[in-house]
Amino acid sequence: MSLIFRPLFEKFSSTYTYLLADFESKEAIIIDAVQETKQRDIGLIEELGLTLKYIIETHVHADHITSSCPLKERFSDAKIVLGEANSVACADILIKEGDILAFGKYKVMAMSTPGHTDGCMSYVVDGKVFTGDALLIRSCGRCDFQGGSADKLFDSIQSLFALPDEAAVYPAHDYGGRTVSSIWEEKAFNEMIGGGVDKAEFVSRVNAMNLSLPAKIHVAVPANQVCGANIISDG
Length: 235
Ligand SMILES: [Fe+2]
What we know:
This protein is α/β, with parallel strands linked by helices. It has one domain (about 5-210): Ribonuclease Z/Hydroxyacylglutathione hydrolase-like (Metallo-beta-lactamase, Chain A). It is about 25% helix and about 30% strand. It has helices spanning about 40-45, 70-75, 150-160, 185-190, 200-205, 215-225, and strands spanning about 5-10, 15-20, 25-30, 50-55, 80-85, 95, 100-105, 105-110, 120-125, 130, 135, 140, 170, 180. Strands 1-2-3-4-5-6 form a six-stranded mixed β-sheet, covered by helices on one side. Strands 7-8-9-10-13-14 form a six-stranded mixed β-sheet. The chain has a two-stranded antiparallel sheet with strand order 11-12. A hairpin with a 4-residue loop joins strand 1 and strand 2 (about 15-20). Helix 3 crosses helix 5 (about 200-205). The longest helix has 12 residues, at about 150-160. The structure holds fe (ii) ion. Fe (ii) ion binds near residues 59, 62, 116, 133 and 141. Fe (ii) ion binds near residues 62 and 133.
């Protein structure tokens, strides 16, 4: 065994949290951890005897509150990582396109993929890409708040589509129970941008999404700008 890879699910916001670790060194990263499931995640990290190095966010979320700060309180050597466009004071590392983090023998390569929000990042690890809300399975993130831009998201998804076809796509959410896709599948079948859709058509599709605001947006965005500090919850 070499890579420990544990996809985890938070049911209230349909969020995926990903725990990855190097089996030999036990150094670990966690991507998009959620308040409601922090005890589960802390318990798993402790049970497996992992050393958490990085607490990574794909973006400042609007639909749930991160558990970055509580995780850092428990694992004090871990560093909170957010995209540089977020300028969030609680981040230890503001990461940018092409930056690389290491855990054990594995590398995390950061890609700037704005559009859903202006500070969205995707992360490539060991043939997998963690796309946040930029590229979802057969869909993509909305672009109507937090500096969102369908124009930018089109370009970001094109950069994701330049990854190898076999790269496995792990999004921040799926509302239909799907867990993983691949770049070739999304290039072919994504309902917003697959099959060679051009930018003008993509922008009009995104603008036609017409979604209601996430129920927690007015709580979640300010809470996430302080990395979920001082949240009282049962989780
Ligand atoms: Fe989001």
